[in-house]
Amino acid sequence: MDEVSGHDFGSRVELALAATNHLFNARNSPRYVAQVLQGVTAVATKLERTTQPFTGVGPSEMKARVGAVDLDRPLPDTAAALEELEEVYLRDAVYFHDAKYAAHLNCPVVIPALVGEAILSAVNSSMDTWDQSAGATMIERRLIDWTAERLALGREADGIFTSGGSQSNFQALLIARNHAVAGLRLDSANAGLRLPSLLEKLRIFTSEDSHFSIRKSASMLGMGFDAVVPVRCARDHRMDPSALAGAMAEAHDAGLVPMAVVATAGTTDFGAVDPLAELAALARAYGAWFHVDAAYGGGLMVSNRYRHLLEGTKLADSVTVDFHKTFFQPVSSSALLLRDGAMLRHVTYYADYLNPESAALAAIPNQVDKSIQTTRRFDALKLWLTLRIMGADAIGALFDEAIDLARRVGALLVAAADFELAAEPQLSTLVFRYRPFLADGTRLSPDAADALNPAIRAAVFASGQAVVAGTKVAGRHYLKFTLLNAEATLEDINGIIGLLRRTGESLLENDPAFSNSGISKAGNSRAGNTAAEASA
Ligand SMILES: *Cc1c(COP(=O)(O)O)cnc(C)c1O
After folding, report:
1. How many whole angstroms from 501 Cα to the centroid of ligand 1?
2. 164 and 229 together in one domain
3. Which of 143, 379, 466, 491 could form a disulfide with 100 if both were Cys (CB 3.0 to 4.6 A apart)?
């Protein structure tokens, strides 16, 4: 017997009725339009009123504000929730469209992609199976073909959209690993061995400047971090082919199996594009997989001026491209491309309830057969609308602008006596540091510069007036600009340089920790606080 009292039943029906008003359906379509418009308007208003990339809010204040929200007590309407969102998010978010945001590869986004974002999340296609996606699968496949063609990967190429460069790199190495293991199993001496004993022999070669996701992937693939052999770069931060040749020969002579060579087309710090053709030849000589991580440099494929830098991708077995970096797409949008699409079988698993083998045999296009994700967003729609509304050349022009701006900023930094540029810009990043001459005519010591530059960065971040990144080069602390904003001007970036300089001068003058007599350990550990105070 159902023991529900009349009262409970009544309120339950009421709640369910009210709840159905929130469902995205034909009856509620005016509500959908109105509410999304309220949200979009809140963001648009925010953009119009935002004059710097950040407010400088700290984590403890944000934690308190977010923590004060009672999640078990909903607000009366969307307007109230958006008002609250201003407090807990929008006011203090980091804004990538601002010309003084110059830190990471997260990019200003293009409006056609935002239209796509709204549509894809509303329709909510899921890319795992044809019966949840239909045309979305064909759009994704068409864009994979388009990308593979731009990368000159040949007629057998295929690929899949992923959540990001890290996932694309992981999947590439998973396929390369399984391909290498299948090769090892052809040797009868290995026939009875379980996977872990085979993995022991495999090595991945990549430059010391390559992305950390390569090492992390090796670890996740059961090979250990130390299966990755770091290869020396030349002075221009591109992998040195003779160093690779030496490292591969050494591994081969030790009875190890060179599983893969991972080249980078656009390193995260220096934008360096490795000498792809030479590295490809070495990979081939040892029967190793040749993967190109073009997470950053991928946008060069639509550049009319710098496209030639990616020419070597035609020799790759696989390529990572992050559309959410140099194609100006919102997170997430990335892809993995393979020269031989059949290699995707290494991630295929047939589940009776979802993608039975019978479906594959009947040529039903289930994208889950090619992916390490199951339920998956239709991120390809953003790129589709971007190409249909703006066109590829326009995307390339945006990246070209950022590359040109980086060159001009590089010249500024070379001319500035109190800054040191670590290397000529290659794409749109600049690695540099503040190292002024002191009253006695000597230059600030490298150790003092190591303490000062992170303090400058922290102080500028806390001021919210600009956001720059930091990195290390040969153990030394540097600052980094990543420029992706085609509307940022030389004056904007010069403004950031001025801010960095003034902050550095102020720290040197007012903070005993940064006096010329050298920096004590205690001074170093206080640097973060004093920096924040200096900017207040
Ligand atoms: C950003 C980047 C990645 C990681 O991509 P995510 O989309 O952040 O996962 C990998 N490789 C390079 C060279 C990158 O710059």
Report:
1. 30
2. yes
3. 466
Give the end of a domain, one of 363, 390, 417: 390
My answer on whether 276 and 412 are in the same domain is no
Whether 194 and 338 share a structural domain: yes
Between CA 496 and CA 485 the distance in angstroms is: 14
Distance 218 CA to ligand 1 centre (A): 15
pLDDT exceeds cutoff 70 at 534: no
Q: Which atom of ligand 1 is nearest to the CA of 268?
A: 15
**Residue type at 351 in one-letter notation:** A
Ligand 1 atom, smallest distance to 166 CA = 9
Question: What tens digit of pLDDT does each residue of 446-477 get?
Answer: 999 999 999 999 999 999 999 999 999 999 99
Distance 328 CA to ligand 1 centre (A): 14
In sequence order, the 6+-apart residues with CB closer than 8 A to the CB of 389 are: 112, 115
Arithmetic mean of pLDDT over the chain:
94
Phi, psi of 236 (to 5 degrees): -85, 10
Measure CA 128 to chain center. Answer: 23
> Rounded to the nearest 5°, which phi and psi values hold at 290?
-115, 105
Ligand 1 atom closest to residue 266's alpha carbon, by position in its atom list: 13
Q: What pLDDT is stored for residue 350 in this prediction?
A: 93
Residues 275 and 375 in one domain: yes
Residues 380 and 432 placed together within one structural domain of the fold: no
- pLDDT at site 3: 53
Q: Of 355, 390, 425, which residue constitutes the final position of a domain?
A: 390
Is residue 143 assigned to a domain? yes
What's the whole-model pTM score? Answer: 0.94
Q: Are 410 and 432 in contact (CB under 8 A)?
A: no
